[in-house]
Amino acid sequence: MADTPSRRFSWTTIAPIVAIVALAATWGRVPGTAVVILVAVLLGASVTAAVHHAEVVAHRVGEPFGSILLAVAVTIIEVGLIVTLMASGGESASTLGRDTVFAAVMITCNGILGLSIYLSSRRFGFSHFNAEGTGGALATVVTLAGTCLVLPSFTLGEPGPRFTGAQLAFAAVASLALYAMFIVNQTKRHRDFFLPVTAEGTLVDEDDHADPPTTQTALLSLGLLLVSLVSVVGLAKVESHAIEDAVAAVGFPESFVGVVIALLVLAPETLAAVRAARRDRVQTSLNLALGSAMASIGLTIPALALASIWLEGPLELGLGATQMVLLAMTVIAAVLTVVPGRATRLQGGVHLVLLAAFVFLAINP
């Protein structure tokens, strides 16, 4: 793939540069309505550009490394948005991390997973994937979610759904250890568990894809990815009050800010998963879905634990009763979807209904 002038000067190249200039111009100021709208557009463009450049680099390094890179890039964006919004304060700051991480789990394990299976099954009859690799990823997500989002509601060390300092440190270390073990399993000993498979269960020949980008193109995208990530985090800080005001203006609960953040950072990755599903590469879609859920918990919680040292106010991670029920239904449905190694439109529809229930109850708790 040649690095042509048209590629070098595409919107995904220009957007991060314009966004970083806008960040320098607006940092430390209170922007007016027109500037807030422009910043919002640049923020969305930067998120999309970041994931695009991550996808270019991912194509260069191949699967499953590509899915890992995409998940980590999205999680860096997510952590940046959460920390910048929490630093701005407000009544919802203490629960913003929990709300965003839980929303990311619901969107990935129900939205991305369900949509990918539904579209693939509708086009090819069945969605085929490796139950061993996908099952291991799901087990890791369930363990992370239970440890970091459910247990704080039942521990006795602190009032409310909070960990003590020691408990939070343990959860952070355990999360990093689980994530690291999974990455080693995915990229070293059992890499073939996470490659696309055919209906007969054989690995798909990845050589039938388009030629990977050149090293020069991949390095350019890597640099633009870093610029995009800085732009996203900075512009989110500029836009933080506008996001909270918009949620309040439409009458939604303050906790819906977390849903907005998760939807923002995961929308481009959803498109990448959908593209893979339409090519009958559902395993890649599931790698993206469960990998993002895993990174959202396994990397975000340790980052929030570290940030809590200087952030004011408590860090509430424990889910409420309604959220726990939604998580339990998601886990049961996901297990029944993954175990056979293939799925139909019904399983995809079940997960999409669970996502709809989550969004509806987030608006009308």
TrEMBL record:
Domain Sodium/calcium exchanger membrane region: 33-187, 221-363
Membrane topology: Multi-pass membrane protein
Pfam families: Na_Ca_ex
Main location: membrane
InterPro entries the UniProt entry points to: Alkaline_pH_Ca-Antiporter (IPR052946), NaCa_Exmemb (IPR004837)
Entry superkingdom: Bacteria
Any one cellular-component term (Gene Ontology): plasma membrane
A Gene Ontology molecular function term of the record: sodium:proton antiporter activity
Residue ranges crossing the lipid bilayer per the database entry: 9-28, 34-53, 65-88, 100-121, 133-154, 166-184, 218-236, 256-274, 286-311, 317-339, 346-363
Keywords noted in UniProt: Membrane, Transmembrane, Transmembrane helix
Cellular localization per UniProt: Membrane
Protein's UniProt name: Ionic transporter y4hA
Source species of the chain: Intrasporangium oryzae NRRL B-24470
